[in-house]
Structure formats: structure tokens, C-alpha cells
Specification:
With 190 residues, the protein is an alpha+beta fold. It folds into three domains: 48 residues; 85 residues, no CATH class; 39 residues, no CATH class. It contains five helices and seven strands; from the N terminus they run αβββββββαααα. Strand 3 and strand 4 form a beta hairpin. Belongs to the TM2 family.
Length: 190
């Protein structure tokens, strides 16, 4: 019996609660309308400042694409690698991104004077900016033939000629004076 009374009491109060909820919702709606009106009026009164052009160097990595530089077949480093171990690469604003007044445009097919970047083709005339990348500078005039270095190491390694050839005179001298490092690594006779 007690269960029934509580159920009846709950049902009786439920109608009163719904009424209070409706009144609260109406008050909230009127506050929202007033706040919206204030915001709209504030936007009409305040003069909006013109949007400044975004500098291309400030773009997020997903907003631009940089071309992978060609590789030098002799040094296996990017063409244009400088003595300070950096190379400049051309970067393009992606399709629909504007920076420094340049709108990024690309096409899915190649055209004259275009380069590929992330499966899209960009015109070389639309380079937005250049970015510095790291590389390992190798002077093409001082490249050693590895076959010659190997032959010198096999036949004259205990005299240090391989080290002299590769440009390490101190190691070559140490190897020569110790006859290849006290014959370390030389085959033993039994």
C-alpha cells in the first residue's frame, strides 16, 4: 500500500514540475533573443577591420607543398646543396590557400613548366616561397673512388695508404708506424 501512495504522490507532483520547466525554458529563450539582438547590434556598430594577407612562411605544413629537389647522381645529395649543409626548395600554396596575395592553384595533369608535388601539378611561376632544408654537402672535386680505396686497403692497408688516399694523414701515419695497427685483423700462421 505504501508503494501505491508514493506512486500517486509522484504523479501528482510531476505535473507541477513540468510547468516549472516550461516557465524556465521560456525565460531562457527570451534571454537568448536579447543576447542575440545585442550581438547583432554590436556587429553593425563596430566597423570590421580588413583581413590582412597571411605571409607564406606562416602557413601550417598542411597548407603548402614543397617540391623534393632533384638528386645529384654523383653525390646522392640534392642539387644545389650548399657548404652550410642547406638547400633551398620551392614551395607552393595548396589549392584554395592564399598567402602574400598568391592564390594556390594546381591541376591533376601536367602542363608546360610544371612540377609535381603530392600528386598535384603546380606551375613554376606560382612559387609562393622557398624553404631551407638540410642536406650533406659533398664537394664533387674531392670525391674518392671507393673501388680504389678498397684495393688500397686490401693490398697496402698495413702501410696506411688507404687512409692517406681518403684524406686522413694522421690515421695513415699511425697505421704505417704500427704496420696496420700491430697486425690487428691480420691472419695468423700456425
Amino acid at each position: 500500500m505504501m508503494m501505491r501512495r508514493r506512486t500517486r504522490m509522484w504523479r501528482g507532483h510531476h505535473g507541477g514540475r513540468q510547468g516549472r520547466q516550461r516557465a524556465g525554458a521560456a525565460a531562457c529563450a527570451s534571454v537568448c533573443v536579447v543576447a542575440t539582438t545585442v550581438v547583432v547590434l554590436a556587429c553593425c556598430i563596430v566597423e570590421l577591420a580588413p583581413v590582412e594577407a597571411i605571409p607564406c612562411e606562416a602557413l601550417f605544413p598542411s597548407m603548402y607543398c614543397c617540391v623534393t629537389p632533384e638528386q645529384n647522381p654523383v653525390t646522392f645529395q640534392p642539387v644545389g646543396c650548399r657548404r652550410n649543409n642547406t638547400v633551398l626548395v620551392d614551395c607552393f600554396a595548396r589549392q584554395g590557400v592564399e598567402c602574400d596575395g598568391i592564390m594556390g592553384t594546381s591541376s591533376p595533369t601536367p602542363s608546360n613548366n610544371s612540377v609535381v608535388c603530392d600528386d598535384r601539378w603546380y606551375s613554376r611561376d606560382d612559387v609562393a616561397f622557398q624553404q631551407t632544408r638540410e642536406c650533406f654537402f659533398v664537394d664533387e672535386d674531392n670525391i674518392y673512388d671507393l673501388d680504389t680505396a678498397l684495393a688500397l686497403s686490401i693490398f697496402f692497408g698495413m702501410f696506411g695508404l688507404d687512409r692517406f688516399y681518403l684524406g686522413y694523414p694522421a690515421l695513415g701515419l699511425a697505421k704505417m708506424l704500427t704496420l696496420g695497427g700491430f697486425f690487428v685483423g691480420q691472419p695468423r700462421r700456425r
